[in-house]
Design brief:
There is one protein chain. By secondary structure, the protein is of the alpha+beta class. It folds into two domains: about 80 residues, FAD/NAD(P)-binding domain (3-Layer(bba) Sandwich), CATH 3.50.50; about 60 residues, no CATH class. The protein has six helices and six strands. The strands form three sheets. It has a two-stranded parallel sheet with strand order 1-2. The chain is globular, with a radius of gyration of 20 Å.
């Protein structure tokens, strides 16, 4: 009887692990266990009511270095080359980042000025929130949600 490997989670890491295990010289039986109805984890695109597409997770590949080269090789092995849209670093799409909050797009702050002043949707300057995080002692709670962390550090609008 052959080996069986169970991979927990069908996010990008679980999918990549399953793929590489199945391509091993003596591949085991791979069982992928995912708790939700869809694969992909954080990687997901949704279309808004006005037709705009929102990326709800990582949306880019940084092709530099060995890790970037291996990622692009995996993209090629999966036959997804035609899905990749190369964007140069000086292109506005590579430089501008937005958050969709409360039905509106908000540009993420850039430069020192953007870090020192509040910028919607954040009610507190990001620099001071980050500095407070570095100097504040660890809380007594064993865990905290990302939402409560962002709200506590960046204001109720986040």
């Amino acid at each position: 009887m052959g080996r069986t490997v169970v991979v927990l989670g069908g996010g990008i890491s679980g999918l990549a692990a399953s793929y590489h295990l199945s391509r091993a010289p003596c591949p085991p039986k791979v069982v992928l266990v995912e708790s939700s109805e869809r694969l992909g984890g954080w990687i997901r695109s949704v279309r808004g009511p006005n037709g705009a597409i929102f990326e709800l997770g990582p949306r880019g590949i940084r092709p530099a270095g060995a890790l970037g080269a291996r990622t692009l090789l995996l993209v090629s092995e999966l036959g997804l080359d035609s899905e990749v849209l190369p964007v140069r670093g000086d292109h506005p799409a590579a430089q501008n980042r937005f958050l969709y909050v409360g039905g509106a797009l908000h540009a993420l702050p850039t430069g020192l000025r953007g870090l020192l002043r509040p910028s919607p949707p954040f009610s507190k300057p990001l620099f001071w929130a980050g500095l407070r995080e570095l100097t504040k002692p660890r809380g007594k709670e064993p865990d905290e949600t990302v939402h409560s962390f962002a709200q506590r550090r960046l204001g109720p609008e986040s």
